Amino acid sequence: MTWPTIHKSDEERAGANLPDYEAGARAFSWRQARAMLDGLPGGGLNIAYEAVERHVRAGRGEALALRWLGRDGSVRDFSYADLNALVNRFANLLASRGVGKGDRVFSLLGRVPELYFTALGTLNNGSVFSPLFSAFGPEPVRARMTIGGARVLVTSETLYRRKVEPWRADLPSLETVFLTDCSATPPTGTIPLAGALEEMPVTFETVRTDPQDMALLHFTSGTTGRPKGAVHVHEAVVAHHVTGRFALDLREGDIFWCTADPGWVTGTSYGLISPLTNGVTLVVDQAEFDAARWYAILQDQKVNVWYTAPTAIRMLMKVGASVAKRFDLSALRLMASVGEPLNPEAVAWGLEAFGKPFHDNWWQTETGGITISNFLSMDVKPGSMGRPIPGVEAGIVERLPDGGVREVGRSMTSGELALRPGWPSMMRGYLNEEERYRKCFAGGWYLTGDLAMRDAEGYYWFIGRADDVIKSAGHLIGPFEVESALMEHPAIAEAGVIGIPDPTAGEAIKAFVALKPGFAAGEELRKELLGHARKLLGPAVAPKDIAFRDSLPRTRSGKIMRRLLKARELGLPEGDTSTLEGEEH
Ligand code: ATP
Ligand code: MG
């Protein structure tokens, strides 16, 4: 099925931060974007200063920066001035312990208020912030903190005892551990954070960081293999700010909710930095996904802009559009999604449930911020990731046998998605992995490892990760297309598609599906699904086999791990599973 384009009204266009995509992109320069921010008094650029102190100095200290919703129903509000004081206290605390510029500060925390001000306090002090998923087991925590040369860790007593204490002696660089909550007898070698903060002054002069100084260390999701530690610098804040403004359409005073886990890059770029630089109120929910709770948050907090992920949208779809309709969601202006391909079915479901589509956007840990997006003012083609952010040049390339690359044309071409380096949030390296980093570049392009198609109007369409693409009977088949076709069947909640060796076709397509409530797995449904896929895709591209699963293996950032489906199917070693959801390592 081809999905009709969703047109935007003149009113929607006129009100958007980027009212005319083409004109905006033509007029844009990163130099002008930099001028939207203040820079440090006396020179330099620091993410934390732009996120918080700048607003306080401009007289916006009383505005609400963060509304934290506790799992138990409690609410804590922090104005920009409150947040500034806490950020400064933590920066003072680090400085008082001799932690300085470039030193690595890790967090191992769920969505608790401490995460937000310790992250920014770290940056304010010129130190480097690196977040970890609180659900990681001891080994992934140890491995990442060792690679990063952690000097400080902020965590809770429970997480510390289970995930750090067993190997602490192996990492002598880890001098200081702060605990956000602790019992009367905290473990030896740890410091209760609350008490230590109380003794600190509420003012701090932001450490003079250069735009090119390292600020953030983010590990990739590990979907395709061993995670990489991407290095980002303070200048990234320019891209965080601009993309928040253009792609998420953030406006001062907005209520913004980003549902990403703080343990991956979205949680920092858009769960923290971008919204605050744009002067909005950030809603943070401590609890895990729950459809009714989520709708209640959207309604009660009057969320204007909501940034979520396909995996969450598919869970909402499972519950049904009728649930959404019970809530007053009239404050919602923009709904955006990132992290995985967003099936056209899900975009259209947005229209049914909310009266507006989900806006897909594409980026990676490496790009540090949104690089391809559907904008509020731009017509949405369901299934497309949208068009490049102003200031980012994208292209479709093919790799040549001599190690170079060639652009394959500007219209209706498919190949590897490539970006011209030069936007501020681009990674500056993979920590301690120079060779792996170097391999990402050729012919003046950054090669993303994703395959995509560019249409005549410059919209980009995701095909699949280069590693996941299936070669069957002479066809190159992207799993996304097959998965999206399967998703159009009412029984299917989610689908993951892989290629398995086949003596005649080279590879045969196999699909793994999880069903919506009310549907029973069985031979009859399997046949029906195979027929449905054949009808939509044709025999060359349809799966030869479909297997039912209760759920599909995914990373903690919500991405289906096709390589794991494949390894399990073929009885091969599973590789790095440190980021696999639902398992302790
Ligand atoms: P690793 O690099 O360790 O294998 P990863 O690529 O999943 O893991 P991330 O940086 O978290 O790590 O994810 C970026 C990737 O997620 C992109 O390269 C792309 O494959 C996928 N992705 C993100 N957004 C979209 C989107 N809107 N549509 C399709 N794919 C997306
Ligand atoms: Mg990747």
Automatic annotation (TrEMBL):
A GO cellular-component term linked to this record: cytosol
Class in the EC hierarchy, top level: ligase
Family matches, as NCBIfam families: PRK04319.1
Ranges for domain AMP-dependent synthetase/ligase: 58-431
Domain AMP-binding enzyme C-terminal, residue spans: 481-559
GO MF terms held by the record: acetate-CoA ligase activity; ATP binding
PROSITE patterns: AMP_BINDING (PS00455)
E.C. designation(s): 6.2.1.1
Protein origin, superkingdom: Bacteria
InterPro entries: AMP-bd_C, AMP-bd_C_sf, AMP-binding_CS, AMP-dep_synth/lig_dom, ANL_N_sf
A Gene Ontology biological process term: acetyl-CoA biosynthetic process
Keyword line: Acetylation, ATP-binding, Ligase, Nucleotide-binding
Name of the protein in its database record: acetate--CoA ligase
